[in-house]
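Task 17 of the worksheet. Students: predict the tertiary structure of the chain below and write it out as structure tokens. Keep your answer in the requested format; marks are given for formatting as well as content.
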Amino acid sequence: MPLTLHNQHTCFGGTVGYYSHPSATCSCDMRFAVYVPPQAQAGPVPVLFYLSGLTCTEDNFTSKSGAQRYAAEHGLMLVAPDTSPRGERVPDEADAWDFGTGAGFYVDATESPWSTHYRMYSYVVQELPELIAQEFSVRRDRMGIFGHSMGGHGALVCGLRNPDRFKSISAFAPIAAPSQCPWGQKAFSGYLGTDRIAWKGYDATALVKDYARPDRTILIDQGDADPFLAQNQLLPEVFEAACKEAGQPLHLRMQPGYDHGYFFMASFMADHLRHHAEVLTTG
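Model answer:
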């Protein structure tokens, strides 16, 4: 599979690279960024996938989060895909920042015209990990996933549904019950149609009832000054209740004074990388 390197930078003894490739899953070129830690020079390393939020690209997390410092410390490769398919032939809602380009919601769309390209769930779960395993020095048996906001929703869904692939999960301010919030209802109606049964497959609050793993703890950080928390877009308390009922260990930390952005994420990034490293680098 052709892989194009667009630029590369030395960072904490490793490298940050920006790539693109033709995606069979999304029927267009897809972009992603990779941090290769210095430990990869000696052999395969665990890999941690990061899913970004609404309007973001592969660059937001890569350039703003400060995660590379901790990835180098723990010997973790970081992979950050784009948030949706893009291109002249890819449909979009030009006036909607929360639907279409930059807002793939990590689902496999079933509704026209979205179903041809908007297949971010399969891209994240299947195609991208396989590509990374083929092109980089990683351990296929040591993969984790985390994300922010829409990407936090994606990380919870992909991680819960694929516990054999993703051994660790965490999230920053995730859209934790998308079937019950305006963002999720808009996205699911557009991509999946009006059948709410289909929505459950992409709703972490619904999924945890069937995919709970009592042997694994999910870490979530949520700022209590997050404006989207007040707008009932995130609903961490709903997910927390579902985890409690299902017996899923959850460490939900409400962080006083923090909002929804990258300053919040950077403040707790070390904890999240440590959370994943404890699972992915031991044994």
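Marker's comment: The radius of gyration is 17 Å. The chain has ten helices and nine strands.
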